[in-house]
Queue: 4 jobs
Job 1
Amino acid sequence: MAVLEKDTKTLWLALEDRVKRVDERVSKLEHSTEGADIAVAHVSSRIDDLERERNSLREDLTNSKETMASIKFERVHRSPGEQTRGKARSIIIKFAFLKDKESVRREWKQLTGTNYNVWEQFPPEVVAKRRQLLPKMKEARSNGKRSWISYDTLYVDGRPVRD
């Protein structure tokens, strides 16, 4: 009887040890599963965000194409002169309608940081006047005032400055 009791205890201890190891493994698997569930939820959320962004970009592209198709140009040509190696030649555009020019002008800031730029072309007299006004504009800005040049007029805090 003592041998049977001893064998039963040994078997019982071995069984408890095995159950303990199985419980630890199950606990680790549950923890891994919870981590995987969290990761799946995060990835699913990110996929939803990316799909919304893609749809928004598609819509913007479609609207841009429609807008571009509606813009009328009076004349479009490359700038005169020789092409500089490694540098694209400028394109000069004359819009048929002022509203088209203004809609393009409002979008210029979106080109910041890209390889594209847009400039407004002025007559030589206006360019000379703007060069004279530029230091005054910078000085006003350094004094904490809002200033800008529109055509050939300097504005400081919304008021035109006369020479």
Job 2
Amino acid sequence: MLAFVKIPEVLPKQKLTTAIRALPGQLDIVGFSLFASSAIQLLLALQYGGNQFSWHSSQVIGLFCGAGATSVVFIFWDYRQGDKAMIPFSMIRKRIVWSSSLSYGLLMAQVFCLLWYLPVYFQAVKSDSPFMSGVHLLPSIVAHLFGAIFSGKIIQRVGYYLPIILICSSLMAVSNGLLSNLSPHTTTAKWVGYQILSGASRSLGLQIPIIAVQNVLPPSQIPLATALVMFSQTFAGALCLSLADTVFTNSLSKLIPTYAPSVDPQTIIDAGATQFRSYVSEGQLDGVLLAYSKSVGRVFYLTTGMACGCLFFSCFMGWKDIRITKSVSNA
């Protein structure tokens, strides 16, 4: 398709040899190294906390302190580099850029968490195989596909992207709130309906942050702004998945002693969603399943908060008609 489709050039393109010679000077290697080390330390602290080490252990506290100190150095370096920095302050200060980046990051983070922990619910609580847990995700996937088809037409007809992203994030908050009520006895009709609402709502706003920056900023700033929006998706997704894992694991370790006192929580956590049944007696199974479903529900509390955050930051994306106006000349 790329071989036969001609993509219009918004900006003049440099020669290949010129671009290769200029590339090393445009890369902020120091900034990337500082940001990467800070992010890795933060993710490791969230991963280790409550799992391999306690939250007040020297390892976790040291990682948090290292992440904070490195991020301060990164901010100083980023400010010093100016427009040559990996994340230029002059760009992220623009309201349309930071609001679109935060909205898109939170939107995609809750999608990643949903697609990760719904299969955990199906495999652990409903005793599905990994294959069938994927099949049971089809309601959200199909709704997402159909919603994506119609969302472009809706944006084209309405012209203003702000009301659509507000409706999208509001419905996402509702759908995640409904999914947080999943239990061992949730009927098929309910989890199918919840997934349809989730898939359809997120598909409405999936393109809007990118459309917003591409229609508000001048052509010379669009590539960098689009890269920042896409970067927010990756970083927020990784960060929120680590947070979700922390919430889920700590919830399991606290709820299993409550609902199944004779079961070792660490054994259930180490066994995983598909193997823990072999370590649980018939009399304790119902309690473990209830602890699992409530732990997944607490993850969906987190995704509900992400959707609410997306709703809040979307309010700053501005009110702009992106429809192409045709000028009519009098003959």
Job 3
Amino acid sequence: MNWTAGYNTSVAYTNSYHHEQSPTFLNACLVMQRVSPPSIDKFTYCELGFGQGLTALILAATHPNGDFYACDFNPLHVLAAVSVRDEARLPNLTLLENDFGELAQGKVELPQFDYITMHGILSWISDETRAQIVQFLRRYLKPGGVVQAGYNAMTGCAQVMPLQRLLTLGAKREGGTWTKASALARTLAGIDALHFQRNPDSLLRIHDFDAMDPRYLVHEYLQEAWTPFYFADIAREMSEAKLTFAGSASFSHMLPVEWLTDEQREMVNTIADPIDAEEVHDYCSNRLFRRDIFVRGNMPLNDARLREQAEHIHVWGNASVAYERVVASEHATVTRGPEFHHTLYALLRRSEMTLAQIFDSPEFTGLMLDDILKILRLSIATGETSIRYGAEQPCETADRLNAVLLSRAERGEVWNALASPRMGGGAAVGTLDQLLLASLHEKTDRTKALSKDTDELIARIKRSLVATGLRLRIAGAEVSPEDIEMRLGHILADSGKKLIAHSEHLGFWRAQKPAR
């Protein structure tokens, strides 16, 4: 076997941030599922298979109290991440170019870790390499440590496996770009091959190809060892490293699952084995991707210890999401009772609160703690509410990283998030918004600059649009070159102040005192 171990290294991975890998978010998920989390006063963290490194970079910048390690065996990925790390001066991030076998065998000097995370990598590597990861976890995870693993789920991906096989066949026949590699699948779908008629998910994926980043598609589909897994099989492998399932890093899938119908919930409750019951949940939701949390030593939180941990859980309302009584997920809808759900919504729009304050709020007198957790989990799942474990950390390192990311965005590098100390990780930001932020970043009075320096800001954003190749679109229509200046002026006038306020709210940059 060569050094790639079945992983496609022909192109670099996308610059994507995954919040479920944040240690503060993982701690919040554990507490919300009544599991004791590690301390984040001082901790060690490792990401396996970091891609372009955006997640590791943002987490190191927003957790200066953590000692971060991240490993990837693709030298292109390591070079890209090292360049950003060094420019942003992140002293607490060590980037390694090693394969998992070298790590598992102790050939690299490493500490014991409180957190080890991996996004997608389990589904893209060989059985041998996956066994090396389990060996690494057994060797380097501390007692009480946390593992977060994201991977393709068999129940939702079963009918996609023939499509993946067809795409790899197309790559073998055609080679070259993703467009050529996917030509065979597109052709068969276009001539009504019966597989696509009877497997609408596969056909829908083909229709979505043109709207997706080809780099992501190469890494998602053109892997030699592309494997979706049943949950029970991954849980069994993790048990070999003394790990037990602690819950989900997705609030939509936390138990008790709100999205199940009464009949589904009643049936699942008859299954005694919790691992089997968790796997049956995937059939109810046809889940495509799992975000699982495993721990080495599962210590449940009783009511007294839950109240202690609740002092560290911070929640606040998302002003951009309106309250809806009927809410939808990827696979179901839920109709909420009006009384306590809307009460929580209104409370969290007034100010940030701790979970302990919510427990003691007179509005929820008479409710059991688990009833309050259930209401809050659903609110977080809908996007109405944000959550963080622990105090907001100092912003100096996050400021440095964001300055680097915004500067590079102007030169054509694409990111999907910036560092947010308030979130304890990253927050999504579109490319155009990043270019707007970059133009305002160094202004001593950004609000005044919206009107005072409009021509300068527009000229800078236009140069960035050329560098990124981004096409300005409004209401679904592409803006013509002669109208771009006018449209950018309208965007700055209509949305500039809101964007500045939103950025200060999330901590993308520090709030400025109004000039006198």
Job 4
Amino acid sequence: MDLMELFFISLGTAVIVCYGVKLLLFSRILFPKMWFPLSKSFFTSMGEWAVVTGASEGIGRAYAFALAEQGMNVVIMSRTKVALDQVAKEIGDTTGQKVKVIITDFIQENVFSEIEDQLRDLNIGVLVNNVGVLPSYVPCKFLESAELDQTITRVINCNVKTVAKMCKIILPGMEKRRKGVILNISSGAASVPFPLYTLYAASKVFVERFSQGLQAEYKDKGIIIQAVAPFGVSTRMVDYQKTNMMTLSPEDFVKSSLQYLRAGDKTHGSVCHILLGWLLQSIPSKVLYAEYVLHSLQDYVKKKAAQRALNATFENHKNK
């Protein structure tokens, strides 16, 4: 066998092994229950209580319900008392679990000492850092954002500072007990630089890197820390877009994402969103950031918002 023949045999073997590994990894995505199983008592074994920020609606509400259904008592946090009280009643009536309500506005300064006091004596096994703010539903360039100084403060306080502060409050107890789960909700928009949602996407990059760094630091303490980066989920933040294969309901997304809890320090949370993440990262930046593409995105969202407002007006007149 000459060197050339040996080279091609080695190259062919390497290609087969490479694609074999990719196929194996893909099968893990398709069958998370088989590859990343969780016992029925997994969440309750972490601790008695789960804490969920931004739990009055959307993804946060869905996490609070899902964890209560797993047998955990839940602390739900948001700035809207009426909505939180309603969620607390629904969780209590549906699951029989205890619910503690904490009213707070994460956009404001100096709210965390009071939160720490209210959480001090709880055995917290799960933290879901879900609360977040989108500067504007309609995409726009950074300097075109309304009230830019206030917008920067709001996004940093809510999307960045809150994640770090809540981990500072809750992580020490998990480290002491050598167990716990922290889920930090990022966004698919953090997968690549995302023009017209620049500030929001950048804040979610922090969530991912912070989560991945913490997981490396505390994995040997028995703590799971994961960034969850969804794409389309039908919530108020995206004007309740109609659900489909790519845009999931909060409940469906949360149910799916929890199946990937042991899948690593970051997950997009569902098969469709994982595939979308791969696709987005494979598109050449010259195409993704072309003026035509950005203008098309802006026009599309504006039309969707206008159509939704028109439909809402029609419904209001019809119901009078």
